[in-house]
């Protein structure tokens, strides 16, 4: 059995910025990069996403956020220092870092990041969000924040943002 | 460090009912309210969503469901009294309510709901679903039900439903 | 209280293959079937989804993947034999199969599959993915693979795939 992971290869690279439109429908995609400073870090992307959506003249539609990494997640929660500490503690409790995972064992894996915990924690949080746009802005509740959960930093992380709608 | 949570503020409030269309594409969004009666409660929204979709002449498309609250979730599972009890027990086992979370500590948090457990349980379930519409109806398997997981009730909860497609 | 689960019934069955288009927007949906061989099995669907998307002349858009089953999941992670073993071990640790769940108790449930663990594990992984299409191909990071998590096999599982975009 192979110790390697399967690589995903597109025929052409993803364009940094791309648009398409037809009869009043606009689709626009971009890559955004977020630099993290810690191994586990929760970054509030809400303002960045809200500003992105306001730049385009999309009145009603969807906005998709996609993390391009297996160990970097996207999810909704409240942004408060105390709760962020609780979330990190919870992730560490749910998945022990040193539990003799095969992905960390050179006899079974050619990955040298020793990050099985990061992969397993990512299962719980997910890698994407599909939000609504209404009235030209993202639909979010008062306490809802769009959070990026870095699980194996520090690293520069690429996210793909795509808006899709009618002006 | 602040004890407060960041608030999400749109420039304009979300309209109760809103539509847009262009050249055969229709987008329609509404807010629906669900009253819950217990702290943890699982509500079957399937019939309500199915009826909503049938009201519009959308043959093929998507329907997005979004909970406007950090402690109210949306997910798919089977609706059976015994299984619902198991799901509640599972959530209580995964996240202890009384585990000295910082979000519940007045020294670190200005939240007086003592609901760290609700926030952490919500991480596991998620806040939104993006379903397919085909043949004018929602695409669901025979045993799949659209469930709202109230994690800090009783409360009146707002959900945003948006359909997006071609008639 | 009933021991039975609520059944989801559409007015008409979901078409095997269906398309709609308007003024440059195309929507195309199909059912795909995946046969599994084990009770818990992780299947890499990435190449199948990538090939599906390339068959259509959709340059920018979305592709929705939907599992039609409560105990069959869809999620993103790395595909490596060692990590797949870790994921299975993690799911088994998070939800014990023999924990006296009511769904497995004939006094409370008419389900004879004894699969409460499958339903609870599915809560953690989710049943759908909504991916971006850009430049005519699915948007995925280098190590990201689209995985189907069979949690109560072996069975033939139906997934619904829908692409939605502009050519």
Structure overview:
The structure is a homotrimer of 167-residue chains. Chain A is an alpha+beta fold and 167 residues long. In chain A, 20% of the residues lie in helices and 37% in strands. The first copy, chain A, has helices spanning 46-55, 81-94, 116-125; strands spanning 17-22, 25-35, 41-44, 60-67, 72-77, 128-134, 137-138, 145-150, 156-166. A six-stranded antiparallel beta sheet of chain A has the order 1-2-9-4-6-7, with helices on one face. A three-stranded antiparallel beta sheet of chain A has the order 3-8-5, sandwiched between helices. The longest helix of chain A is centred in the middle third of the chain and has 14 residues, at 81-94. The mean pLDDT of chain A is 94. Chains in contact: A-B, A-C, B-C. At the A-B interface, helix 1, strand 4, strand 5, helix 2 and strand 6 of A face strand 1, strand 2, strand 4, helix 3 and strand 9 of B.
Largest sheet: spatial strand order of chain A? 1-2-9-4-6-7
Termini separation of chain A: 52 Å
Chains forming the largest contact: A-B, 48 and 54 residues
Question: What's the number of extended β-strand segments of chain A?
Answer: 9
**In what range is the share of β-strand residues of chain A?**
35-45%
Anisotropy-based shape of chain A:
globular
Low-confidence stretches of chain A at least 5 residues in length (pLDDT < 50)? none
Residues in helices of chain A, as a percent range? 10-25%
User: Major sheet of chain A, described briefly?
Assistant: 6 strands, antiparallel
Structural class of chain A: alpha+beta
Number of helical segments of chain A? 3
Oligomerization: homotrimer
H/E topology pattern of chain A: EEEHEEHHEEEE
Mean pLDDT score of chain A = 94
Question: What's the alpha carbon Rg of chain A, rounded to whole Å?
Answer: 18 Å
């Amino acid at each position: 059995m192979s110790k390697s992971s399967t690589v995903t290869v597109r025929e052409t690279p993803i364009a940094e910025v791309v648009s398409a439109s037809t009869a009043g429908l606009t689709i626009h995609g971009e890559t955004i990069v977020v630099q993290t400073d810690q191994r586990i870090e929760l970054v509030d992307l809400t303002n960045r996403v809200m500003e992105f959506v306001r730049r385009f003249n999309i009145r009603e539609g969807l906005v998709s956020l996609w993390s391009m990494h297996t160990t970097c997640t996207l999810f909704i929660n409240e942004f408060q220092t105390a709760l962020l500490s609780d979330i990190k503690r919870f992730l560490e409790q749910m998945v022990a870092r040193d539990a003799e995972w095969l992905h960390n064992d050179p006899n079974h894996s050619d990955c040298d990041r020793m990050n099985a915990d990061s992969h397993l924690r990512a299962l719980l949080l997910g890698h994407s969000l599909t939000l609504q746009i209404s009235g030209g802005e993202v639909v979010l509740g008062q306490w809802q924040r769009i959070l990026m959960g870095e699980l194996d930093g520090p690293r520069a992380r690429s996210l793909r943002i795509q808006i899709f709608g009618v002006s």
